[in-house]
Input
Amino acid sequence: MGLPSRTSGTVEKLPTLRYEDYTIGWVPVLEIEEAAAISMLDRKHNDLPPEPRDPNVYTLGRIGEHNVVIVRFERKGIDAAAFAVENMFFSFPNMQFVFVVGVGGGAPGPAVPYHSKEEDLRLGDVVVGVPNGDRNYAVVQHDYRRENSDGTSEILCPKYSPPKELEIAVRNLEKDHAQNKSMMLQYIQEGIHDLEGKLEIPGLPNTCTFPGRHKDRLFLSSYRHPDDSSPCEECNPNMIIQRKPRNDTSPKIHHGVIGTGDRLIKWTNYRDRLRETEGVMCFEMETRGVVDFPSLSIRGISDYSDGHKNKFWQPYAAVAAAAYAKDVLRVLPPVVIEDEMSVIIEAEPPIIPEAEPPVILEVTSPAVLEAELPDIPEPQLQYISEPQLQDIPEPQLSVVLEPEPPIIPEPEPPAIPDAKSPATFEVLPLIIPKAAPPVPLEAVSPAIPKAVYVPPYIPEPKPPVSEKDLVVCTYWETDSEMSDMSEMPEKLKFDKGTL
Output
C-alpha cells in the first residue's frame, strides 16, 4: 500500500472536501499531542464550514489512503473527550474509527531480569491497547466504583476491546516490524523535523528529539520522590533499578492492557497492584470517555506513574505514539464511501413501439367520410395530400377518425295483444233533474216589491233514450284496420240524427 510523496516540512494542500469524506478520527488532549498529530499529515485540507451545534475545532488532512480529522476540544474535565468524540461523530457521518493517541505513564515489571519484553518497558516506548496473552481485553477502567445499598462501595474495573478491524491491522503491523518493513522510524524523523524550532509550550523542551538513555531512570517502588518541586537529579542514584542497557534509540512496541480513569496515577503501590491483577501496562485519562466508540488507544511512555514523573519525555513520546498511529493507518484498508451525488444508475431507455404509417384516404366528396373505415385501434390523425382535395367543396387539412360508437339496440315496446274484434262501448243516457218552479220575487228581494223577476230559461228535457236509440261505436287497434274508409258507414249506426 503506497504512500503519497511527502517532503519534510511541507504539507501539500488539497481542495476543500465534505464532512462525508472523512472516516478516521484522531483524539489528542495535550497541546504537544496535537502538534505531533498534525506533523503526521501527508496533506492538509482546507477547513469546512463550522457546524453550529459542534464546538470542536478540527484540523483536516490525509494520511495514506485515509481522510483524517484531528479534533481539539476546548471543554475541560473528565468527560471532555467523550463530549468531543460524540460531536465529531455527529458532524462527520461516515466516521469509522477513533484513534486516541498521546502520552501515558508506564507500569514496568516489578523485578529484573525481566521475563518478557512487555515487562521491560522504557521511556519512549509505545503501548497499544489490544488483547494479548491471557488477557482478552485491551482497556480497563480501573477506578470505576459502584456504591452499594448498604453504604459500601466496590471497584468493578469494566473492560473493553477495540474492533476487530483495528486489532487485525495491529497484528499485521507487528509482522512488518518483525521483518523490518515498518515505516515508524521514518515517520518519527519526519515529525521531529517538522516540529523542530516550532514548539513554544510552557514547561516542555522546545525539541522532540530523543532525550537519551541516561535520562531514563526507574526508581525502586519503595523509594519516594523527596519533593514534588525538586528535580530527579537530586534523588538518590542508589535507588535506581539497574536494567539491561539498550543499544538503539528506537522505541519498542508493547501490546497489552491500558488502564484509564479519572485520576493521575503517581503511586507505585497502586501501579504495581493493577499491573499484577489486571495486566495494566500504562495509565492515561482520556480513553475512558471513548470506549463506547470504535476506538484504539496508543500511548507513548513519558513517565513511570510514580512520584518521579516529569514532562521532559513528553515531546518525544508524543511523536513516537503519533508515528505508530500513522503506521497503523498505512496497513488499515480504507473505507470506500459511496458518493450519492456521483453514482449515476443508467436506466434502460423505454421501449417505444414504431408508429404505424398514417392511413391516406382518397376523398372526392363529403360522402366518402361515411364509408367504412379500416379497423384502427386508436384515434389517429389522417393526413390528406393537396391533390386529393381538389374535388372537395370545402378544403379540409386533416380528418380525425374516431372509433364508431357501439350500437345500442333500442328497447322493444311492450307486447300488446292483437284485437281480434272491435271493442264496444255503451253510451249511458244523460240524467237531467226536473226544473225547479219559479221563485216569487218577494222571496228573492223583499225590498223591491214592484220588480218582476224573470227566471232563467230552462229547455224542456228530452224524453229518455230507448234501447233502439243507442249508438254503437267501434274503434280499431291499428292504422291498417282504418285504411279502408269504405267500411266506416257499415260500422257506425245512428238513429233519427241524434248525434
Observations:
- The first strand starts at residue 12 and ends at 14.
- The chain has a mean pLDDT of 77.
